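User: Some background: our group keeps a shared notebook of sequences we're curious about, and every so often someone picks one and asks for a predicted structure to add to the entry. Today it's my turn. The entry only has the sequence so far, pasted here. Could you supply the structure so I can complete it?
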Amino acid sequence: MNLADIMTIIGFVTIAAIVIVLLIIGIYVYSIDRTQKQHPVLRNYPVVGRARYFFEKIGPELRQYFFNNDNEGKPFSRRDYQHIVKKAKYKRDIVGFGSQRDFEIAGYYVRNSMFPKLTEELKMDMKTKVTTNRYLLIKDPLFMEREERLEKHESSAYLLKEEDAIIIGPNAKYPFKLRGQIGMSAMSYGSLGDRAITALSEGLGIAKGTWMNTGEGGLSEYHLKGGVDIIMQIGPGLFGVRDPEGKFDWDELLNKSKIPQVKAFEVKLAQGAKTRGGHIDAEKVTEEIARIRKVEPFKSIDSPNRFTEFGDIPSLFGFIERIREVTGKPVGMKIVIGSIHEAEELAKHIKDLDQCPDFITVDGGEGGTGASYQELTDSVGLPIKSALPLVHTALIKYGVRDRVKIIAAGKLFSPDRIAIALGMGADLVNIARGFMITVGCIQTLMCHSNACPVGVATTDPELQKALVIGEKKWRTANYVITMRKGLFRIAASAGLDSPVHFSTEHIVYKDEKGKVSQLEEEG
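Assistant: Of course. Here's the predicted structure to add to the notebook entry:
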């Protein structure tokens, strides 16, 4: 028997063995499917019916990469996502051939000026420079990996002039001065991993003129690593400022306020995606996170729906006043607005009590979260373009608008969206998911599972290895700088020398029939 015959026999036996094994497995699976009582499809169509569950499982990925067009994906379309990535990676965001916006539907627009401002006419800090790393695209072939080169790039920081700096808490012992209008919204350590928080902190510190909100999970060493200014958030669970019994610890609050980077405190009543307290699953509560939050490790954490320390606006304002007295630093509040009545009640109490927060963060219902419930994310709380004008108008009506700064949040991830929010009454804006994308988020929608495949929304040390801090921090910095540049660009187009001058007169609304009205008329 020659070698060819031997190889033929071996090949035949191997194929026969594989067929037999597959047949045995098929019979075994068939018997399981036919007798199980949970899935009717499998009882009627054993083995083959499993294809349905396979395609159902990979459906989100198929839609994201193949079937959704560039403008369809939710919560961020492919087009939205790419604009954020281009700013972060390449420090630019140029499009060709025209807009992909659907101009037939209703929407808000920035009113352009017939005589826009020249670059030299802008009231912008021209001296402060920032050096970052950005990618330069060399080739983008169809069947091979794109060829890119990392290069150092120096640019303006695009900060406001000193005289246009925004002061939060001018009457506080330690006011908070800001030279940029874009900062990072509340994202807790625990919801995000330590590498993500570190990369964001270092990137924001490089960009200058911005801030980082800790989220209700407490202040960690990772928030402090980049030297960026910090707004420390205090939620109903009092994480980071609670004693062993779960009561508010005023001594711990004082200790936190002595940290130079901590510039202000924010009392969180609610956030747009969940008008209730936060939640974090047990597997995310490591010993370190438990130490920072002052809770037990490896146990799920549920923050109450509201603070037990107060139950109405007067007692809320009293609580805020006490925090300000103890710390000497500005204190704000984060709210979700559901009606004009709520906004006016808030403004009326500010006038009548002669007390108020130094800033109000208005979070829109379209905002993101690590984990929430569908009914809350979809239907409770107004979106930012409805909520923001209600608060701004109510404060004006009661003559107290100049006493409070407004921070707006809710998918404000591009300069035009920010300009519209500023025109609607905001002084500053918060961004969360845009910053998550800068450090690698690919929208797998698994933030609640601790299984984020790119190491952003997870505390799993193995998964976090995917996130390289030394590379992602530059993307965060590039994103902030490019966003501020775009904001000055759109201000110039509106005939303004600085984005701090956006007001209702600069925003118009076009309905489905093409009728145009001023924003102030909409109220």
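Suggested note for the entry: Residues 53 and 59 are 10 Å apart (CA to CA). The chain has a mean pLDDT of 91.
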